[in-house]
Amino acid sequence: MTLLIENPTSFSPLPPLKSKSVTVVIPAFNEEGNLEPLLLLIDQAFKALDFTLPVLIIDDGSTDDSPNILALLSRKYPFLKVIRHPHRRSVTGVLKTALAYTTTDWIFWGQADLESDPQTDLPLLLEACVPGVDAVAGWRQQRNDGKTFASNLANSTCRRMFGLGIHDMNWIKLVRRDVLATLPLELVTHRYTLAVMAGWGCRVVEVPTPWHPRHSGKSKFGRGRLISSAIDFFKVWCWFQSEGRVLTPMKLERLGWLTKR
Predict the structure, then answer these.
(1) Closest of 173, 185, 202, 200 to residue 16, by C-alpha
(2) What's the domain count of the chain?
(3) Which pTM does this prediction carry?
(4) Is residue 192 in some structural domain?
(5) Is residue 4 situated within a structural domain?
(6) From CA 14, how far away is CA 29, in angstroms rounded?
């Protein structure tokens, strides 16, 4: 069965800076050394913005002292809610939990390792989310963490195959929750949410954001992630083909599935 997607921006919610209907969602796995400075930066970001947003940290089965630290931080910061997975469910599992426990119009997807500074990055993405925009992606600048080649290869492949003009798909992002909730995450996983949104005709923009070295702990990136990313890419490609979908908004316009802007 072919699913015809009407222009999603025709029904866009209010921009997040106007509605303040945003939840900051942060996945965390064994980030005990980063959690306290992270919450301090988020609190400082809210003070600079002059408003507070709900923050949801999802502990994906940490085996270090993260659960105890998060329990203390949730008492210190009233805006913080913590959900703990009893065992690791992966980033896609965290995204499913986030959708189940949020009701705001928008989700800001952050990072626990402090490679993204919420003091600068949260305001940047909020300001870029003007009327008609369905998602804002951060684009890491001056990145130097040993994963650049693999990341650039994955992103360039997606730009060619999916018609997605975004340089950094799997970084911080601000996304409409209602669109995220329609994605078949068992197939597309968290890695390709922006690619699918672009294929559906959503307007995705990007904002350059400064990159910072990991504050504490070790990266979870490894050879296994390269393999799983390739498998996920194949699944997404097959899903588009089997559903009779066309990948780029330009092609969708030619078929009359989208209204030209």
Answers:
(1) 173
(2) 1
(3) 0.83
(4) yes
(5) no
(6) 33
Give the strands of the sheet with 55-60, arranged side by side: 80-85, 55-60, 22-28, 106-109, 173-176, 135-141, 204-210
Instruction: Please state, as a whole number, how many other Cβ atoms lie within 10 Å of the Cβ of residue 13.
Output: 16
Residue 140 sits in which domain range?
A: 18-254
**Tens of pLDDT, residues 86-131:** 999 989 999 999 999 999 999 999 999 999 999 999 999 999 999 9
Q: 137 lies in a domain?
A: yes
Say if CB 56 and CB 98 are below 8 A apart.
yes
Taking only the tens place, the pLDDT of each residue in 202-253 is 899 999 999 998 877 676 555 556 677 777 777 777 776 665 554 444 343 3
Amino acid at 32: E
- Inside any domain, residue 74: yes
Structure tokens belonging to residue 1: 């069965």
Q: Which residues neighbour 75 within 8 Å (Cβ) at sequence distance 6 or greater?
A: none
* pLDDT tier at 10, thresholds 50, 70, 90: low
pLDDT at 148 over 70: no
Is the model more confident about 143 or about 251?
A: 143
CATH number, domain of 242, equals 3.90.550.10
Gap between the Cα atoms of 113 and 31, Å rounded: 7
Q: How far apart are CA 171 and CA 111, in angstroms?
A: 8
Q: How far is CA 68 from CA 97, 99, 156, 161, in A?
A: 20, 24, 40, 44
